[in-house]
Write a structure and sequence with these properties.
By secondary structure, the protein is an all-alpha fold. It contains two helices and no strands.
Length: 48
């Protein structure tokens, strides 16, 4: 799958999340709630 296969709003959300995760102070892996990320992905799929 290529990055161009994703809709622009999903790419924008990925960029925003990347910037949040990589901006000081860095978040620990304990703060990454995979259930929340999965729910966000499901919402994006339903919207798209």
């Amino acid at each position: 799958m290529e990055i161009d296969d994703f809709s622009s709003h999903i790419i924008e959300e990925i960029k925003n999340m990347w910037e949040i995760w990589n901006s000081p102070p860095r978040l620990s892996t304990d703060s990454l709630h995979l259930d929340d990320i999965e729910l966000m992905n499901l919402n994006n799929i339903q919207e798209g």
